[in-house]
Amino acid sequence: MNQQHKSETVYEVKGLNLWYGDDQALKDINLKIGKNEVTAIIGPSGCGKSTFIKTLNRMIENIPIVRTSGEILYHGDNIFDKTVRVEELRTKVGMVFQKPNPFPKSIFENVVYGPKIHGIKDKALLMEIAETSLKSAALWDEVKDRLNDNAYGLSGGQQQRLCIARALAVQPDVILMDEPTSALDPIATAKIEELIDTLKEEYTIAIVTHSMQQAGRISDKTAFFLMGELIEFDRTEVLFSNPRDKRTEDYITGRFG
Ligand SMILES: Nc1ncnc2c1ncn2[C@@H]1O[C@H](COP(=O)(O)OP(=O)(O)OP(=O)(O)O)[C@@H](O)[C@H]1O
């Protein structure tokens, strides 16, 4: 991958504000997310991490009292423009949640759920999509002999990788992850972290994490949020070794949070 490709901007957030009713949860957020980068969003509970990440594919608008101002340019186009089709945006920008949330269906049906909704009926093609997606999510070897088994029979870590496979099956460009390992044990967590490292070769990833160690291990850039504000945003090694803001320093050294 050449340098030019790497530095391409996927998201440019400009002056983003967000309110839940009268309560402002995001205040004048400005940041850029580069292609094939992993961006970690850190900060204490309630600082707006989940709100921010869910704004990137407009999932936040499922909450009716939400109001936003400012712009989020996705490949140069403002996602809040009237012309933007939200379903299309959410296909391009997939999401994985804190608790694995497979459907009560077979492993196979979970993965091909999105492609089927998009009208793909051909059995062979669906099988191919399932195999490719499960391989990309590093789950294929563990499930290839039981694709018709219910997804609930998988371990938590496997279920989370299944949810990643389900997100990959519709060929996204960006994957948003909201604390994807916080419900998992250390071994399952390590597998997901390893997977994130592989996935970034093809996808752009933004991940909310409570764990600064995790942010340090897997991300290229880190954004530190505090009470709805983006306090500092920098290359991860810089933010952790040489923070510019006292509040960042206090947080990463464990003085609060
Ligand atoms: N549905 C909602 N309605 C009203 N206020 C909300 C809603 N969701 C979140 N908030 C408020 O917005 C602020 C930011 O919440 P958010 O969940 O984004 O924080 P967070 O940093 O992800 O927290 P955590 O680490 O605990 O998950 C908080 O003050 C929260 O109470």
Automatic annotation (TrEMBL):
- Is the keyword ATP-binding in the record? yes
Q: Which keywords has UniProt assigned to this entry? A: ATP-binding, Nucleotide-binding, Transport
**Mind telling me which Pfam families this protein's record contains?**
ABC_tran (PF00005)
As one GO molecular function, the record gives: ATP binding
Superkingdom of this entry's organism?
Answer: Bacteria
Q: Where is the ABC transporter domain?
A: 5-252
Its recorded name reads Phosphate transport system ATP-binding protein
Q: State the species of origin.
A: Fusibacter tunisiensis
Instruction: Tell me the lineage of the source organism.
Output: Bacteria, Bacillati, Bacillota, Clostridia, Eubacteriales
